From TrEMBL:
InterPro entries reported for this sequence: Palmitoyltrfase_DHHC, PFA4/ZDH16/20/ERF2-like
Species this chain originates from: Kryptolebias marmoratus
Cell compartment(s), UniProt: Membrane
Taxonomy of the source species: Eukaryota, Metazoa, Chordata, Craniata, Vertebrata
One Gene Ontology term, aspect cellular component: membrane
Pfam family, one: DHHC
Domain Palmitoyltransferase DHHC: 159-231
Entry text on domains: The DHHC domain is required for palmitoyltransferase activity.
Name this polypeptide is given: Palmitoyltransferase
Superkingdom: Eukaryota
Amino acid sequence: MGSAWRWQLSRSMRLVLRWCRQQRGGRGGGSRTQISSRLLELWSYSKLLLHSLCYNSLADSDTLLDCVFEPIIWIVDSLTRWFGVAFVCLVVLLTSSVVIIVYLFVIPTIISTYPVHWAAWHLSCGHWLLLMITFHYYKATTTSPGHPPKNKLNTPSVSICKKCVTPKPPRTHHCSICNVCVLKMDHHCPWLNNCVGHFNHRYFFSFCLYMTLGCIYCSISSWEMFLEAYNAVEDLC
Ligand SMILES: [Zn+2]
Ligand SMILES: [Zn+2]
């Protein structure tokens, strides 16, 4: 009886020890090291993949800054492109409103107040300025500012445009709003919704000049009316 009990005890002890050994062997040592080595391998592979995707021998802090600010630049450019259309409508609307006011109030006053030769001079001068403003604005808006020739290899150039990957002749700049290189670029004008460059610079300059003259003419010719209206308001107060 005693020996049978001892035999049973030693047998169960042996079984427990074997299970423990198996558990240690199965869960602890081998598998854990395998998982950690697999994870390390995956990590180093991901690092290598990222490095190979981002590697560029020309990359520097400027390129990094460009990449960081690229979304902001894209939003500003898109908004300016959209604002260009709105600004052109605003120019047409404001100029038309001034012309309508002149036709409705200023011209009848001039005709009724001034002698014939002065009225004729006013009419000719006013219409000449209106014609010049309209013509130069239309031409400045619709004329292409000029772009570097695409298929000519012997173009004298000073650098290469990074965006278009084409040679840039002297005084050529890339317009990020039009997304094209512009010859003798002055600036991108939102009021024209166009770049001011080699071929439309004179139209832009003439438009600015005639618009200034037109403003001065309107201010001088309606000065009496303005004073009258101002005094009337003052008297009411
Ligand atoms: Zn370009
Ligand atoms: Zn432009």
